[in-house]
Amino acid sequence: MSQSSRRTSVCDRISALPDELLHHVMTFLTAKEAVQTCVLSRRWQNVWASVGYLNVDSCNFITVKHFKKFVDNLLLQRSCALLDMFCIHTSYDSFDDSLDYSDIHPWVRHALRCNVKTLGILNYCDGKLLSVDGYPVPFTSLHLKSVYLCKFSIDNRFVEKLFSGCPELLHLELRHCAIKATMFCSATLKILTITAADRTQDDPEGFQHLVINMPNLICLHVEEIANRNLRLLDISSVESASVYLNRFSFGHSDVDCTILSALSNAARLHLMSSSIYEDVS
Predict the structure, then answer these.
(1) Residue 124: partners with Cβ closer than 8 Å, 6 or more residues away
(2) pLDDT at residue 48, rounded to an integer
(3) In terms of pTM, does the model score above 0.85?
C-alpha cells in the first residue's frame, strides 16, 4: 500500500464507524455543532438528521431571530426521526429579545411527536417566567419519562395536565420556577426536585399547604417555597429526601405536621431551614 493510500485509510477511520457510534459522538455536541458536521464529508452529510439527542442553545446565536430560524429549519429537515432527548436553553439578557412559550410550543410538539423520552426547557432570561396559559395540554406523551423546567409558572392546572398527560413520567425537576400549585399527585413519579423557587409578586398571600402525594416516589428534594408548607401524604417509598422546614412546619394551629412521620422509611434525610442544616442518616 502506498503512503498516500495508507494516510487516506487512517483519515477515514472515524467516517467508517456505524451511524450508532457517530450519533453517540454527537451527543457531546450542541445541535448547531452537530449540523456543522455535514461539511466533513459525504459520509457525514445526513448523519446529524437522525441523531436522537438534540441540545439547542441560544447562546450560540447573535439574536433570538437567528436562533428561532435555526431551530425551525433543524426540526423541519430532521422530520420525524425518533428522539431520546430534546433540551432547549435560552439565555438572552434583553427582555424584549427573548422567547415566549408561544415560540417554544411548536418545538415541544415536534419532540413529543418523535416520542422524546427526556425533555428540558431551561429558560435563563433575567426576570422572565414562561407560562403555558392558553395551551390546552402543555405536554402529552406516552413515552415522556423525564422533564426539566427552569423559570416556569407552575400552577395546579399545569401539574394536573402534566401528570395526567404523561402516564410514564418518572422524573420531574423544577428550577427557579414560580410554584403556585398546592397539589402534586402522581402514581408514577420516582424523583421530584424543586430548587430555588422563584418569588413572584402574584404569589398567593398567606399560608398554604403544598401537598405531595406520590406512593412510588423514591427521591424527594424540595427547597424553600414562598407561602408554602409541605404536607406529605403517601410517600412511604421515599429512600432519600431533602426538605425545607419553615416556621409553619411545627407548632402551628393550622398544620398537622406529617413531614417526619411520612419520611420514616427514608434511609437518608436532610432537613433544611434558614438557621438549621442537619443530616440524619
Answers:
(1) 89, 90, 91, 150, 151
(2) 66
(3) no
